[in-house]
Design goal:
heterodimer, A: 398 residues, mainly alpha, MetI-like fold, 75% helix, 0% strand, globular, B: 248 residues, alpha/beta, six-stranded mixed sheet, four-stranded antiparallel sheet, 9 helices, 10 strands
Chain lengths: 398, 248
């Protein structure tokens, strides 16, 4: 009979042994440990002391609505909440349906509920009600997705596709004469809301455009190939800020007098066109990694070029580049901060106006620390979700 | 001969890769239900030749007519011929992002426009025939080489082709898996399928081949029934090559 063989004593780590093995194994490791420890202590002490004692967070508290929504009219803020509530339902639904396959989806769901509840505790009045409602919708969506499963899958996918335009329509309004949804001009969109809108629109539109450009660059038709190459290389050779300047300052010179294109829309187009060029190159990298045999097998069984691409090549290529694409989307999210330079009131732009208030002069550290934290939290959330997605799709396992 | 009709007709087929003359006037007529074995040294053009039949390689001179359809630049003709022709590759080329079942049902559903139920029924029937129905829901990466190649054969058969092309189907397999694939191919040959097989498995050739073709330097050096080529080959090159692959 086989007996249980325990690993040697040295492999069974007590905290003390772990510390010895990893931190103090040699005299120079011990020295490094002590040095690094001292540095961490010193930095942390400084940061905490500033954050908890010196910093005047009142500037953020007083201007919170401005930082999050810009000058969006108070009477119409319910539209933003409604859009977010729909999003909460979709997220809950998706977690319920696909959560079974993805490890960690339970953790995401609970984390989301805790976050919404915590926010509800620190807020008051209407925001608190909306936040509690959103938590309820996440839970409800999760329950429906969990129990109905496949039956609602199509509805949820359709929901994800129509959510962005519905959200934008909600914000923008129907017409200036409308009683229910009067138009809110994009000059009033601002803060985190504008940053997120620029990001969402950038991702949603640059993705298909980038895929098309990647395919175009590999096309057998010379005209299509040349156009794709020229476009990609031109855009990649120019900084985003110059494209934004062109869109904001140069474009009006070429348009007939009296014709005006919305400034936010111009920024959205500029960001989309910029991002698409990089996305095309990333997708092309994925396409090149697919062996020739996959094309041959697809063609040999009678699939036409479009079917081979759409059913065999692209699904594999896109799966390969998910980590790179998420990295690019995170970069896009942060790059939208550049629109503040051309005068749009995104998170950074509104931060600058907050700092111009006479009452809060000289509080750059507080405002920029808060803005950075918002960026970090959202970037990290994107990275975390993408990691979960990679694991559940088995990227890097084959 | 009157009951048989030619399934594949190749006349004076030439193919260049740049300056390299890969096929130098290959002519061959294959009757319905014939099993053809093509062999020869590497670089002799044997793989290139069977790949011209379903247009994975384009020939630059000569005619290829498959089941009455002439291979030309007309995309419709090419697609029609590919629907009638199944191909099995040395490297299997299964689609790794799809399950075994999805690999097999893909072409019937998208090319033949069969409903899913019919395609899946056919796929399960074929998986039973190649002996691995229990693997239907696995991904190709979870199967052994021999199992993958049997799935590839099932996938090609799912389109109900009139011709099957095999491009060195056992060359990438571990020795203990070669037999399971050859058994499936022998069983298929006995059903009367028209088959073109590039292989050095002479046991397979002896068992089921109607005719054998020896390729060297882009030409057919010699052809005939297996017993003739094995017992009294006419050409020295054939003799030399057979002695090399049969006695090692």
């Amino acid at each position: 009979m086989s007996e249980t063989v325990l690993p040697p004593l040295t492999e069974r780590l007590t905290p003390l042994r772990w510390a010895y093995k990893n931190l103090f194994s040699t005299w120079y490791n011990a020295l490094l440990t002590i040095g690094a420890g001292a540095l961490i202590f010193w930095v942390l002490r400084g940061v905490l002391f500033w954050a908890l004692d010196t910093a005047e967070w009142r500037v953020v508290v007083v201007n919170l609505r401005l930082l999050l929504l810009g000058q969006f009219p108070i009477a119409e803020v319910w539209r933003v909440w409604l859009g977010l509530a729909l999003l909460a339902l979709l997220v809950g639904n998706s977690l319920g349906i696909w959560g079974r396959k993805a490890r960690g989806a339970g953790r995401v769901t609970i984390g989301l509920l805790v976050l919404l509840a915590a926010l509800a505790i620190v807020t008051r009045d209407n925001p608190r009600l909306w936040l509690l409602g959103m938590a309820g919708l996440v839970g409800l969506g999760w329950y429906v997705g969990r129990s109905a499963g496949k039956a609602v899958e199509r509805v949820v996918i359709a929901g994800w596709i129509i959510w962005p335009p519905v959200f934008i329509l909600l914000l923008r309004g129907l017409s200036s004469a409308s009683d229910v949804l009067p138009v809110v001009g994009t000059n009033l969109w601002g803060g985190l809301l504008l940053t997120l809108l620029l990001t969402i629109v950038g991702i949603v539109f640059s993705f298909p455009l980038g895929v098309l450009l990647a395919l175009g660059r590999r096309s057998a038709l010379p005209i299509v190939r040349w156009f794709s190459v020229a476009y990609i290389e031109l855009i990649r050779g120019v900084p985003l800020i110059t494209i934004l300047f062109m869109a904001q300052l140069m474009l009006p010179l070429f348009l007939p007098a009296g014709m005006n294109i919305d400034r936010v829309l111009r920024a959205m187009v500029a960001i989309t066109l910029f991002s698409a060029a990089y996305l095309a190159e990333n997708v092309r990298g994925g396409l090149q990694a697919i062996p020739k045999g996959q094309y041959e097998a697809a063609y040999a069984m009678g699939l036409n070029g479009m079917q081979a691409m759409g059913l065999i090549i692209l699904p594999q290529a896109l799966r390969l580049v998910i980590p790179i694409l998420v990295g690019q989307f995170i970069a896009l999210f942060k790059d939208t901060a550049l629109v503040s330079i051309v005068g749009l009131m995104d998170l950074v732009g509104i931060g600058k106006t907050v700092l111009a208030q006479p009452e809060f002069l000289g509080l750059q550290r507080e405002v920029y620390a808060f803005i950075s934290m918002l960026y970090w939290v959202l970037s990290y959330a994107m990275a975390y979700v993408s990691q979960r997605l990679e694991i559940s799709l088995g990227v890097g396992e084959r | 001969m009157s009951t048989k009709k030619p399934m594949i007709t190749c006349r004076d087929v030439h193919k260049w890769f740049g300056d390299f003359h890969a096929l130098r006037g290959v002519s061959m007529e294959v009757q319905q239900g014939e099993v053809i074995v093509i062999f020869g040294p590497s670089g002799s053009g044997k793989s290139t030749f069977i790949r011209t039949i379903n247009r994975l390689e384009e020939h630059q001179r000569g005619d290829i007519i498959v089941d009455g359809i002439e291979l030309s630049h007309d995309v419709r003709n090419i697609e029609k011929i590919r629907e009638e022709t199944g191909m099995v590759f040395q490297q299997f080329n299964l689609f790794p992002h799809l399950t075994v079942l999805q690999n097999i049902t893909l072409a019937p559903m998208w090319v033949r426009k069969w409903p899913k139920e019919r395609a899946e029924e056919k796929a399960m029937e074929l998986l039973k025939r190649v002996g691995i129905p229990e693997q239907a829901l696995k991904y190709p990466g979870q199967l052994s080489g021999g199992q993958q190649q049997r799935v590839a054969i099932a996938r090609a058969l799912a389109m109900e082709p009139k011709i099957m092309l095999f491009d060195e189907p056992t060359s990438a397999l571990d020795p203990e898996m070669i037999k399971e694939v050859l058994d499936v191919m022998i069983e298929l040959a006995k059903t009367g399928m028209t088959m073109l097989v590039v292989t050095h498995e002479m046991g397979f050739a002896r068992a089921v081949a109607d005719r054998m073709f020896f390729f060297d330097k882009g030409e057919i050096v010699e052809s005939g029934p297996p017993e003739q080529l094995f017992k009294k080959p006419k050409e020295d090159r054939t003799k030399l090559f057979l002695s090399q692959i049969l006695h090692h």
